[in-house]
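Example with several molecule types.
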Amino acid sequence: GENVEQHPSTLSVQEGDSAVIKCTYSDSASNYFPWYKQELGKGPQLIIDIRSNVGEKKDQRIAVTLNKTAKHFSLHITETQPEDSAVYFCAARGAWDTNAGKSTFGDGTTLTVKP
Amino acid sequence: KAGVTQTPRYLIKTRGQQVTLSCSPISGHRSVSWYQQTPGQGLQFLFEYFSETQRNKGNFPGRFSGRQFSNSRSEMNVSTLELGDSALYLCASTEDGNYGYTFGSGTRLTVV
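Resulting structure tokens for the full complex:
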């Protein structure tokens, strides 16, 4: 089955700096890659996603890049703010026909933004 | 638009007991997926239901089961609870099981 590795496990940055979180996946049939943000006491929240036919997607201060050849994708947060502090998860969705409603998640990155 | 609602938020059970957790998806979403979240194992997929049918199942023992009703609400049941079942149980809904989830806040289960 799919395996997703996420790095780093913890990341501390100064407010205003950029943060980058990287993930690799194993199943070449995976075609959908979402990122989630989880704050204390809440469920994960979808913040951005990318499909396999796209190399990059941006939404204000957040961007995601995908390299299908290398099977890795990354989350980039620019101009970080204290409210960006949370746990971030990457995920990969395998082939549609055998992975209905299922995603494989990375282990998470705890991002701390220091004021 | 109401979000995904999970009840109860917290549960304390004794080993050997059984427990039922409930999830109400976003209106119009027909797919409900369940995940177990623990510090050591991260987010692990339990199963997914779509239009009252289980379409996908993770690698959990048969003590973990679920169902979905005609209004898309879903329940999961864990029988013969073990200490290792202590976790945050999350449900997530989508229109059809594809693309991004909307998660509930979870049910925190503690087995003592």
